[in-house]
Specification:
By secondary structure, the protein is α+β, with helices and mostly antiparallel strands. It has 30 helices and 25 strands.
Length: about 850
Amino acid sequence: MIAIYLLEDQMKKDYRWVVIIIFAVLALLFFNKLFSGYTFNAGDGNIASIKSASNYIPSSSAAWSTDHWMGDKIINAVTDPFFMLMNLFKDNKALATGLSYLVTVFLSLIFSYLFLRKIRLSILSSVFGSIIYGFTPVFLSLIYSGHNTVINILEYLPAILFFLTILFDSEEADKFKKITAILISGIAWGLMVSSDQQRGLYFSIVSGVYAILLIIRNCKPVNISGLLKKRFFVDLAKLILVLFVSLLCFINIASSVFNSIFQRSAIQGGVNNTGITRTEQEKWDFSTSFSQDPAELIENLSFGFFGGVSGDQDAPYWGSRAHSTVGEFRGNSNVIGFFAVLFMMIGIIAYYRKNFFLKFFFWAGAAALLLSFGKFFPGSPFFWLWYHLPYVNAMRTPDKFVSVTAFAAAVLAAFGFESLFAEEDLEKVKYDNRIKYSIIGLSVIAGIGVIALFITLLMSTDIADAIGGILQSPDQGIKAAANINLAILRMIVLTALSIIAFVILIKYYKNKNVKTGVGIFFILAALIDIWSINGYYMDKSYAKEYEFYKPDGVITELKNDYMDEIFRVADAFYVNFSNQAGPIQLTALKGYYMTYMFPYFKIEPMDVTATSSLDIEYNNFFISCLAGSSLSNSRITSSAGLINSNLRLFELANIKYLITDGNLYLPGQQPYPIYMDLTNNSNFSLKTIVNGYNRPQAIFENKNYLPRLGFYENYSAVNNDSEELSYISNYYFDFRKSLVVEANMQSHTNSTNTVAAQKISAYNTWSLKSDVIAPEDGFLLLTTRYNKDWKAMVDGKEAPVYKANYLEMAVKIDKGTHSVYLYYDPDRTTFYISLITVIAGLVLLIIYGIKYIYSTIKNK
């Protein structure tokens, strides 16, 4: 950490200690609840999933998660703050999560400040811009969604831009500093893409274009021939070295990322063993889901106008996603804040013709904003070009482009701040005019706000009825109408305060203390503005771990059974939605159990996650299981038929128990009773009815489920995935008597014996041990997802692991009793390459820090 703020010589003029202390205090204040017994417990990144998925394999950044997909591999970046703190605080994941956010915000403030100072902005302007970016709601409101990997890339872009600026600074003569810049910018770049591939790609485009423009700018070419000279090729070589270093960091996760991209593209293009085909409209709808509605940009000035979060009873969101046909959910804010917009506009007007950096970030932010509109005009024509680039049609959520706009806005806002508080030589007439135009603009906004508030108050009943119709809730319509009034009032108040501050600036133009005071006021006002926005999501994300995670009757009952065997639990039935598997929940507590309680108490769920439809193998397995049921989806006309269509899936997926509150929750319809249908189905037996979280829950046992670990005498050997799928979808193939294995050997189908469950003596998420009793030669089946990195040891000798039942894995076992050890063992080569690269960068950074301190002391 010491080396970070010693990197730039200018820092000795910047009151560096004061700035660093201020940033540290701000970060600590923002995350103050971390130190009073609270933890983040939000969405995908809640403490339950983090505890479950953070079981890293020794000497690796990989983990095997059993929460979804019948098990799946997870690969993490090497020195991501989240990963590092997870390993440092192995016994306190809750604290580690919060601290990773705190460290990320602090580093983003530091690097943003360094970058803004490097492009010659003043101390106050740099502090202002750093705060605008470091606390931007575009990132920090994602705390509510629990996207910790997204938030953890916050610091990388300013770090990359800072070091690239050093690297291509023609006035910088320190070669050691430039070597350091090559290594650190490359490391930051690689880790950024590793943490969040989609936003990392967008940031990479910005970083790459920025570097190329710096190279061209440094050459000062008059024409093409003037560009092609030695300096150009030297700088180009530096950039290539940066990219090479970034590749070394990224290589640890590269195979996983590219595999995901290819799979998504295949699904989008209709290349699938189940014959999935998508129309062009379906492809477009997928790629443009979660687009930024231009109308909702009003929230930058009037936060809360469109509400807060989908489903929030007190601040219901009623914008374009509330009535989306593809079920889009709004769980975070894309706003950058009132004062960010205000000073961004001032900066554009003041410096657009004068400053290369402002011009670059203006166009970068504008292009990203247009792309973020996705399906909405005026962005749709622009996004259509992006959509037709190779593989990018497999990406969705265009509003992720707003991340680029957020950083660009922070830089532009810093320039706007500079134009009002740091230009001592600006003529008073020009200065007064600039502020007067700002006052006029603010007055117009205030006037519009007052008129709008008058209209919304006058028509509050009609507005409430209209929004209530959208949300299908009159009560939420009333609350939404009240929130609109509060949002407009908020804008009016902020506008009025800004006008007063600008009037003071005109009156006391020559008084430096007053100007500094007004500047500090705007910094504090910006903090209050964006903290209040982030606070809305923060308050919904905090919880006290041991108060939130309390076992109910379901948890207690299931944990008792876990003492004897390992199994999975379902709380939904699955159906084929246009050749994609999707859940129909059986209890109103589905989200609560699957997201929070089951992972926390180490109960393995069986669920279809948002990304499962993008995995070909997983989707093929689900669809084939449904197709192999006694009824095809097209013939399901009753809840009894729905139950029967899921029997094969539940059997193969090791689902022992089904949880329901007695109702079937169909999308957009009233709950349909299903309790008696389950009771009367011979494949299920009612185990017990217990007290779930404030509502009774019935636990049904599935009589025909495959054990987690079972021995088969019968097996059908096949050559490829397609042949395996044909067995999965064949209703008459009995998986209790035989398995299908992808192996070059003769089939054995003569025995009448069924699967023999094997006792698991030791188990965790990535390994298990068992003393297997095999009455004859056969296969040991593990009903966990197959991966080539799973290994097997039989009686201490390595044995091959075969793909079985299309998605599961099996080991050949000879007759007799054998000690079997199955474990996930990922290749560590790429991990060591990335780790060594990062360590080399840190060592070089420390050496530079020592060198800097020594030279500073010597010069004194």
